[in-house]
Amino acid sequence: MKFLAPLAAAATIVTGAANAQHASFESAVPALSHYGSTVVQGDLWKRPGLSARDRSIVTVATLIAREQTALMPEELARALDNGVKPSELSGIVTHLAFYAGWGNAAAAADALAPIYETRGIPAESLPGAEVEQLPLNQEAEDAREAGVQANHAETSIGVVDYTRDVLFRDLWLRSDLAARDRSLVTVTALVAVGQAEQVPFHLGRAMDNGLTRDEASEALTQLAFYAGWPRVFSAMPVFRSVFDARPTSE
Amino acid sequence: MKFLAPLAAAATIVTGAANAQHASFESAVPALSHYGSTVVQGDLWKRPGLSARDRSIVTVATLIAREQTALMPEELARALDNGVKPSELSGIVTHLAFYAGWGNAAAAADALAPIYETRGIPAESLPGAEVEQLPLNQEAEDAREAGVQANHAETSIGVVDYTRDVLFRDLWLRSDLAARDRSLVTVTALVAVGQAEQVPFHLGRAMDNGLTRDEASEALTQLAFYAGWPRVFSAMPVFRSVFDARPTSE
Amino acid sequence: MKFLAPLAAAATIVTGAANAQHASFESAVPALSHYGSTVVQGDLWKRPGLSARDRSIVTVATLIAREQTALMPEELARALDNGVKPSELSGIVTHLAFYAGWGNAAAAADALAPIYETRGIPAESLPGAEVEQLPLNQEAEDAREAGVQANHAETSIGVVDYTRDVLFRDLWLRSDLAARDRSLVTVTALVAVGQAEQVPFHLGRAMDNGLTRDEASEALTQLAFYAGWPRVFSAMPVFRSVFDARPTSE
C-alpha cells in the first residue's frame, strides 16, 4: 500500500476533527481506517490546488445532495473547523433545499442543529429571510429567462416562474454565500447525484466568478472520494469541455 | 424577497400539518423557515392545477423513491390530512417497493407504522395480498409483453417473467391505488431519481387514465421543490415531447 | 396473485434470517408481507442461476451503494448466513468506499459493527491495510492507465493519480475479495445508482474473471427487486451489448 509509509508521519501531525476516523471503521472495516488516515486525511485533504475550506464545501455539499447522514456530524463540524462560517454553512443548506430537494435540507438541518447548539451558535446570528442582496446582472438574467421561457413555459409555467422569482432573482442574490461558492456547491451537487449534463452552465458561472481551473480539477479529486469514482468519471469529460471552451490564459 | 409580503397573510390561514415547519430549520437554517412558510407552504401547496391530495402523492412518492427519511413523518401525516386514504398510502409504498426498491419500501414502512398506530389505523384495515383486481387491457398488455420479450428475454428471462407476472398482471391491477394515481407515483419516482428516459411510457399511461396536462405541469412544479430543480430541468423536455405527441384537444 | 398458492409450501421450508420479513411491513404495508414471503423470499432467493451467497453480494452492494440503511441490518446478517465471509463483507464495504462514496461506507460500517459484535467477530480477524496482493496484469493495467491518462490527465491529474495508485494498483489487488466478486460488486453498484454507461468495462472484467452469463442475468433479476425495476430496465440493453460482444461459447 503505497500511501502507508510516506504518509504515516504526516498523519500524526493532523489533529482534531480533520483527523477523526469514522468510529465504526475501526471495528467493522479496519482497512478503511488505514485508507482514511493515510490516503484521505493524510493526503487528499492536504493537497495543494484547493483549500481545506473549499474541500469542506465540496464534501458537505456532496453529503447533503445525497442525504448521506452517517458522515454529516463529523463533516459539518470539520467544515466549521476549516473556516466555513456558520452563515455560509446554513447558506449551503438553503441553496441545496432548491438544488437537491427540500428533504435533503431537512436532513442536513437535523444534523446541523445540535452542532450549532454545542458550539453556542444562536439562530439569531444566522441569515434569515432578509440578507443584503448581491447586484443582479440584468443582461445575463434576461438571456437566461428568455431561454427558459422559450424552452419550458408551455411545459410548466410554475417551474419557469419559481425559477425566475425564487431562484435567480432571490436565492442566487443572497449574500450569505459568495457567488463563486454558490456555484461550487451547485456543481458539486450535480456531480454527486449523476447529473453531469447540467454542469456546463454552472461550472462556467463558477469560473466567471473566480473558481480557477486548478480548483475545479481538485474539486473532482475531492468528489472522487466522497461521491465515488463512477460519478467523477462521468463528469470529467463535461469538465474538460468547459475547460477547453474557455480562454487559454486561465 | 418577493414572497414575503403578499403571502404573509395567506400563511396565517393555513393551520395544522400543512403549515408545519421542519423543526430544525428554525434553529439551524432560519432562511428555510421563511422560504417554507411563504413560498412552499404559503404558495406552492395552494396553487391551482393540482389538488393538495395529489401534491401529497407527488411529495411522498419523491421521499420514498429517494429514501429521504427526514421529511417522511411530517409528509406521510400530511398526506393523510390531505385526503390520501391509508389504503392508498400503503398502496404507494407497495408500488414503490418494485419501482424504487425493496429497501425504499422498508424505510417508508418504518416511518408509516408509528403514524398508523397513533391514528388508530389497524393492519386489518389495510390492503393485503388479495384485493379486487382492475380489468386487464389484454391488447395493450400483449403489446407490452411482446416488446419486452423481444428486447430483453435473452438478457434476463427472470426480469421478463417477473415483469409480466408480478408487475403488469398483478401489481398494476391492484385496486388499492387507482390506475391514474399509480402512474402518477411511477412518473414521480422516475423524475425524482433522474430516470427521465423512462417517463414517456408511464406519463402516457397516466394521461390515458385521466391525468390532465395541467396536473402533469403542476406535478413538475411540486417536484422542483421536493426532488430539486436539476431533476425537473432534465425531465421537462421529456414531458414536453409527451405533451406534443398527444391530441391538441387535451 | 399467482405466487400465493404454489409458493406457500416452499415458504414454510425457509427458516431464519432468509425468511425474515421487514418488521414494519406487517403493520403498515401488509401487501408487502405477502409479496415478501411469496415472491421475494419464497421464489427470487431460491432461483437457480445465482447462488444465495451471490444474491446476498448483489443485495448488500445495492443497499450500500444507495445508502439504504433500513434494510441493512437484516441483509448484512443474511449475507453472513448465506456464506459471505466477514472478510469479504468488510471487503465489499471497503470497495464501495471508493465506488459509491466515503459516506456510503460509513453508513454500512455503522450497520455492520453491531452485527460483528453480536456474532463475536473481532476487528483483528478482519482485513486491514496489509493483505496478500493478487498478481497485477501489467499489460491490461498499462492499457487502462494509458487510456485514462490520455482522456483525463489534463482535467484532473489528482483523479488520474489516485485511480492508478489507490484503485488499480492497490484496492483491486486486495485478496480479501476475489476479482470476480469485486467486479460483481462494482457492476451492481453502477446499476443500483443508474450509471449503466460504465457497466461494460466492469461487466467484461467480471466475465473475464469467471462470472457466467447466467449469473449476470440473475444478478439483474435480483437487482430488479432491490434497486427497483427502472434501474434494471435502463441497464438491460447495456448488459445485452456486453453479452453479444463476447464469444458465443460462453
Automatic annotation (TrEMBL), chains A, B, C:
Domain of life: Bacteria
Signal peptide interval: 1-20
Pfam families referenced in this protein's UniProt entry, alphabetically: CMD
InterPro entries reported in the protein's UniProt record: 4CMD/NDH-1_regulator, AhpD-like, CMD-like
Keywords: Signal
Residue ranges occupied by any Carboxymuconolactone decarboxylase-like domain in the UniProt entry: 39-112, 161-239
Protein name: Carboxymuconolactone decarboxylase family protein
Organism: Kaistia terrae
